[in-house]
Write a structure and sequence with these properties.
Length: 380
């Protein structure tokens, strides 16, 4: 994986037609809404003690998020990312990268719900609210029977995580089963209800792994006393028969060292943490990708993973596979293809990356965490 494959830099968006609107004076966040039994878009919700009521909504920063000041008439990747963010709020837009009337209408509606100036321009305050992803009041839950844009946003996010739901904003049996599957795969209580903990997973924030239970030491049974051997009688010494000269054995070629390009201190660190064993079990198409990468490409990938953009860790986005409600690996694939087309990425290395991306997506978060550690340590 080349650093350019996960770069957070985006091309500047040029307006396709002159903007006729005045710049907004400010976008001041609204006062906090009082606690109640309904959300800001009239979602029917119910309380449930199984979810944490004190967990703060996750903030994934703005890696890949839209640039401040996006408005109607503009187009490009930044607009497409803005549409993805609005869809995570339940907008139901076609993410085509064109800022048209439907995108403007969805943006104004979102600004109204958040108490911002409804100018239809994605400025700093709007961007800050979008960066929080899908949110619920801490004492609110989505369950079977709930309806509204919050449900539609949750369905959109579940589809990005591999679901196949109709984004109709209705929490029916299929949506409940999809939620249970998501909870089961992430070690949560399998109740089919979306609360703060399940919401973190939907927004791409990994749940803290539980500490492994320590095994109780087993009692060591005493070995039985060995019987005393009878005293040996003296035996007359006899000459040993002549032994044939041993045949020379040709040394076997040493097996190829796994991850031979790793520095000794990096290998030792990974072995000590137990992550090297995870790397050894990676699919061949993933390990083959690293073997085909140049040392320079590995260093650039490690430096990029160690960084962050607008407060979001590139490593976290890679490990969880989600940032700002967007699929990290789709974004990486687009970046790699663009890098190959621009001549910035070696075609052979780029093809290896694209071939390995589906496998990276299917890895566990622990395996991707081991990969991130390997690349980051190797680049230092």
């Amino acid at each position: 994986m080349s650093a350019k494959g996960i770069s957070s830099d985006h091309p500047r968006v040029a307006a396709t037609q002159p903007a006729t609107r005045k710049e907004p004076v400010s976008q001041a966040p609204a006062k906090k809404a009082p606690k109640g039994k309904t959300t800001d878009d009239d979602v029917r919700v119910t309380g449930h003690p199984g979810e944490s009521a004190n967990a703060a909504p996750p903030n994934f920063g703005a890696w890949g998020a839209a640039s401040p000041g996006l408005r109607r008439g503009q187009s490009g990747d930044d607009v497409k990312n803005l549409q993805h963010q609005l869809n995570a709020q339940g907008a139901g837009l076609k993410a085509d990268g064109e800022f048209g009337p439907k995108t403007e209408k969805a943006l104004r509606k979102f600004q109204g719900r958040k108490g911002l100036e409804q100018d239809g321009v994605a400025g700093a305050a709007t961007h800050k609210q979008l960066a929080k992803g899908l949110t619920l009041n801490k004492d609110m839950l989505l369950s079977q029977g709930s309806q509204g844009s919050k449900v539609r946003g949750a369905q959109e996010l579940m589809n990005r995580l591999g679901g196949d739901l109709k984004t109709d904003g209705k929490f029916g049996p299929k949506t409940q089963e999809a939620v249970k599957k998501l909870q089961r795969e992430n070690g949560l209580k399998e109740d089919g209800i979306i609360g703060q903990e399940t919401l973190k997973v939907l927004n791409g924030k990994a749940r803290a792994p539980e500490q492994a239970k320590k095994e109780e030491p087993k009692a060591i049974e005493p070995k039985p006393a060995e019987p005393k051997q009878a005293e040996a009688r003296p035996v007359e010494a006899r000459p040993e028969p002549a032994r044939p000269e041993p045949k020379a054995v040709e040394p076997k070629p040493e097996p190829k060292k796994e991850f031979a390009y790793l520095k000794d201190n990096v290998r030792q660190s990974l072995e000590k943490s137990g992550k090297f064993e995870l790397l050894r079990k990676l699919p061949p198409e993933v390990t083959g990708m690293y073997d085909k990468m140049s040392s320079k490409a590995r260093d650039e990938a490690g430096k990029q993973l160690a960084g962050s953009t607008f407060g979001v860790s590139h490593r976290t986005a890679f490990v969880t596979g989600q940032a700002m409600g967007m699929d990290t690996f789709n974004y990486m694939a687009d970046s790699v293809k663009k890098g190959i087309a621009d001549g910035k990425i070696n075609p052979k290395e780029g093809e290896a990356m694209l071939k390995a991306l589906p496998s990276l997506r299917n890895l566990s978060q622990k395996q991707r965490d081991a990969i991130a550690d390997m690349l980051i340590l190797q680049s230092r």
